[in-house]
Design a protein that fits this description.
Elements (H helix, E strand, L loop, with lengths): L2 H14 L4 H8 L3 H8 L7 H11 L3 H6 L8 H47 L4 H28 L2 E3 L6 E2 L3 H6 L2 E2 L2 E5 L6 E7 L13
Antiparallel strand pairs: 1-2, 1-5, 3-4, 4-5
Helix pairs in contact: 2-3, 6-7
Length: 212
């Protein structure tokens, strides 16, 4: 989506309704700085207020995301392009989350090893040595749990039996035996257990495994 185009469209619609940025912000219960960021293409309206914003401006969500008034002649085409763009942006965001997961996992491991090394080969009181080791394990576990949270919400897991793609619960991810990002879980669709791969897309023909 073209945030600059969307921002200019929001500004045009606001002015057509004879609203200032401050007046629009008051109607939405936000600051006028947020409106300014939208109109300059720096940020997008949050999904929680998008419907209310569109109602105030007298436009549809599809028109908002397209950054222009959509006529009946090009409605389907614009809707399809908007959906494709949103899917692409979600896949890119999921890729960043999975990259962050790897970074956090590596960082947590390095910190743990570094603290264990310092505690093992540096002269210090026993209580301080134990404290450093416990701190290392605490940070390591916190990093692992956060990394797992990122893995859980990024993309989908695909059932080997029925091909169903879904986002499992955090509990299911943390308790499942795994090889990399392939986890042994029960599919909510067919009820069968299998080693399910992490994929970034729900498109059956263009899904990309994050393990590849």
């Amino acid at each position: 989506m073209d945030q600059i185009k969307i921002g200019k469209f929001i500004a045009e619609c606001r002015k057509e309704k004879n609203l200032t940025q401050k007046e629009l912000a008051e109607k939405l219960g936000i600051t006028d700085k947020a409106i300014s960021k939208w109109e300059r293409g720096i940020a997008m309206p949050d999904s929680s207020i998008m419907l209310e914003l569109c109602d105030i401006l007298g436009i549809s969500v599809n028109e908002l995301l397209c950054g222009e008034i959509v006529t009946m002649d090009n409605f389907n085409d614009k809707m399809e392009k908007t959906l494709i763009e949103m899917i692409k942006q979600k896949e890119q965001a999921d890729k960043r989350l999975l990259a962050a997961e790897v970074f956090i996992g590596i960082t947590a491991t390095v910190v743990l090893l570094a603290l264990i090394f310092v505690a093992s080969f540096t002269q210090m009181d026993t209580w301080l040595r134990v404290t450093l080791i416990l701190l290392g394990f605490t940070l390591f576990l916190a990093g692992c749990f956060y990394a797992l949270r990122l893995e859980q919400v990024a993309g989908y897991y695909q059932c080997k039996h029925c091909g169903h793609k879904y986002v499992p619960t955090y509990k299911a991810v943390t308790s499942a035996p795994h090889i990399g990002r392939t986890r042994y879980m029960r599919c909510p669709n067919c009820g069968k257990k299998s080693y399910q791969k992490k994929v970034l897309s729900k498109d059956e023909t263009n899904s990309t495994s994050s393990d590849s």
